[in-house]
Amino acid sequence: MKHQKERFKNIQRKIKKAGFLIFNLQFLLLNSLGILPANAADAEPVLSIVYSQDNSNQWSTITNRLQAAGVKYCVIALDNVRSPADWGDRRVLFLPNVETLTPAQAIALEEWMSKGGRLIASGPVGSLSAPGVRQLLRTLLGGYWGFSLSQTQQLQPTKTKLPEDWLNQDGLFGKVYGGVLVAESLSAPVAVWNAQDKPAAVVTTDRSTLLGWRWGVNTVTSAELDRAWLQAAIQRHMKLPPSASRKVEGGAPSCANSAEVALKTNPQPGVPAALQPVIPKPTPSPTALQPTTPQTSPPKNPPTSGAITTAPQPRPLINVIPQNSREAIDQLEETVRLDVVPNSNAPIARGEAIALQQELENLIGRVQSAHIAAAVSASGNPESTASNTPGLKVDRAGFIASRSGVTIPDSEQAIAQAREIAKNLPQLVAQGNYALARQQWLKAKALLWKQFPLDRPLAQPEIRSVWLDRGTIIRAGSEQGLAQIFDRLSQAGINTVFFETLNASYPIYPSQVAPQQNPLVRGWDPLASAVKLAHARGMELHAWVWVFAAGNQRHNEILNQPSNYLGPVLAANPDWANYDNRGNIIPAGQTKPFFDPANPQLRQYLLKLYEEIVTRYQVDGIQLDYIRYPFQDPAAGRVYGYGKAAREQFQQRTGVDPLKISPSDRDLWQQWTAFRTEQVNSFVAQVSQQLRQKRSNLIISVAVFPLPEIERVQKIQQNWEVWARQGDIDLVVPMTYALDTPRFQRLAQPWIISTKLGATLLVPGIRLLSLPTVGAFDQLQLVRDLPVSGYALFAVENLNNELHQVFSNTQGKVQPRINEPIPHRQPFQTAAVRYAALQKEWQLMSQNEQLSMSATEIAEFNKQAQSLQTALTQLADAPSASKFIAAKASLTRFQSQFRIWMRQEATDNPYQVKVWENRLATIERLLRYGERHMLSRIGQ
């Protein structure tokens, strides 16, 4: 034994001389000699690392570097985090390059850290989150990511003498491509960049370490430097008092106690199996796994044409009675709600207070952004409008009348008053003065809403689309009546109409494929009229069709049909029907029967019907609605998809009837879910391929649910990210319906910043029902401030006179605009026009002395801005591959420098700078869309 110890000391000396790079060799040698402490070989993970959509593309190198560093770790999927316990029970949590957290996740992180958790983060952590989240993260981390550096910089300690003992190790300082951190205190930075003014590169607090670069990215820095900093930070945060627990108080286990990181679930694309994360799976409720006696009664709602003999023998998955289910679109709920009830003195939680304060600041930003856009739009010459720009340096009194007759203060005064209320809100909440806090908040919101410039043009080229619903079409009654609707839409500036063409298996036109036209429009062809009327007004007409929803009980009432009538197609083809696990064609509590997407005859019928639409009528596009299964909840015993064809095909593939499996059969259940999802995916691909063969310039859009991807696949088998990435669709229209702007933003934001949509354009949907006029405009302004190319309004029946007037004023054709491009039809022209307007905003701000840049910076800024304008204009005038490459390169250069030029402005006016960055991102997306669509068509 003595001899072995001597050997150990000799080996240790040699390894120490070899340095940090062979850290893992020490572990292996000690283990092979059998003298490693017993508890070290079986050590629990010391670190939880967060996997998210933001770092998914870097996951392979992140895990490579973790394992090379000898760090035992668990993985937490960010999408699963809802409470403090979800952050796990490890002492240290690592957030590598996670830019998006929800308010609930940030608040949960704060509470988790208060119970003993320590945080390591890297990159622009939280930078794409809501402002309130960013502010909270600044407090937790002691600083925040300011802006990216333009080139690689040398990382060095703050002083000649290292500030802390934990930094006394080799490999910490070298070349890195990172960003400047803004520290909350002078003592926070422990490493700086070797640049002018020595900006912070690493910031620490007692509970956190923030690294000013994207950890685990090969183009950023070396693996050795990354590993050195992570090990040093872990060592720092693991220095606990002798009596301290290794785990965090109240934390749930973040993964199994294992020394190995093995593939457990959800393999990540392109990542070797050995490096896949351990992502904990939720434990099913025991109640949810208890089988019940199979139900043997026949289907509750067979078609009137006769009994369906292919219905499954029902087998409930769990012993529960399905609850009454509203339409799925009404089931979207928000984690943070801003339902402010006047005079209520109910307590306001910390998270709600942060959200309320931030929403006021965001609303101020939207008001100011709208005024800048209006000033630019009013004249092509910024000099003539600079002195009339409210919200900047001048007053604007009473531009819109107050219904109450109260004099409206000018914008500067209103904004100042709102800022003061926002500033004082936390103090009122801390004092328990909840009623006054709510009163002040509502006062500020009402005051700001009255400052929107609703009386002047301000919109740039964008997709302005609206759903023209069946009820409104029928009430029009004739082409003359329909012409009045299209006149109103044209005056309101609408350029794209989603015309309800196929509803509940009834086409709105006389079809030679479908069994019968909608009885309420017989003797008239509304689709032919709509195409003619739209094109005469310079608008696009897209045929809006229901796909897998076969009927509608509400429609049956209008047509005097029996309530359980399944529609003309299913009545004639009962084998095409789909079923739930209890044998119902119409799911309990819902109103629509569905087709079986796996049925080949049904698919061919639908394709033939769509081909009829795009060949007989010069529609500009087709929109697929109900391109999914009905709303389900496996945990509550509501599952759908057991059509005859689906059961037969799945049984041929797996040897198991899907009706005999349940969510407790994890592997088979995942296969069953994937099978159903693939039926929808493959049909979208088939529609795209066949219809584009008929009409190469056809625009294909989809109306989809904005649920998280995993939840959406489980509940409705709708994985529209796949359709977007594969190029099967041109526009994604998520139904982001909400009654207030913060809720709307929370629904839309994940998809707006998503990197999973390829070159497909995103067009958020706004539901006009029950929205006040200014509330609808507020949501539109948010869309214009985000990196998207337009919006979709649901629906024409809710477009009242007041809202129509606002649209006519702000985006309509009071003064006809010549050849205003539509983004999905003319992406390069749209990019050039939108960028020209953006340049005018910068000129306007500069003339008002609102841009904080030196004379040298302004000169360089103007030079590169003009260079980009030239490149975009040349591409728009004569598209080609070479001009596209030049424009893309110019835009990339400009974007890389923009944050540096705007670093001071970002501190003074963060909302507006973010808006400008978003508009540059919109131009980038338009170029990407144009590359896929236009360049391929001209053979470049």
Any descriptors?
single chain, 940 residues, alpha/beta, Rossmann fold, 5 domains, ten-stranded mixed beta sheet, nine-stranded mixed beta sheet, 29 helices, 42% helix, Family 10 glycosylhydrolase, Class_I_gatase-like, signal, Divisome_Glycosyl_Hydrolase, GH
Report on this model:
With 940 residues, the chain is an alpha/beta fold. It is built from 29 helices and 21 strands. Strands 12, 13, 14, 15, 16, 17, 18, 19, 20 and 21 form a ten-stranded mixed β-sheet that branches. The protein has a nine-stranded mixed β-sheet with strand order 2-1-3-4-11-10-9-6-7, covered by helices on one side. Helix 5 links the parallel strand 3 and strand 4. Helix 8 packs across helix 23, helix 8 crosses helix 25 and helix 25 packs antiparallel against helix 29. The protein is globular. About 15% of the residues have low confidence.
CATH class annotation of the largest domain: Alpha Beta
- End-to-end Cα distance: 75 Å
Number of strands: 21
What form results from the Cα inertia axes?
A: globular
> In the CATH hierarchy, what is the architecture of the largest domain at level 2?
Alpha-Beta Barrel
Quote the CATH topology of the largest domain.
Answer: TIM Barrel
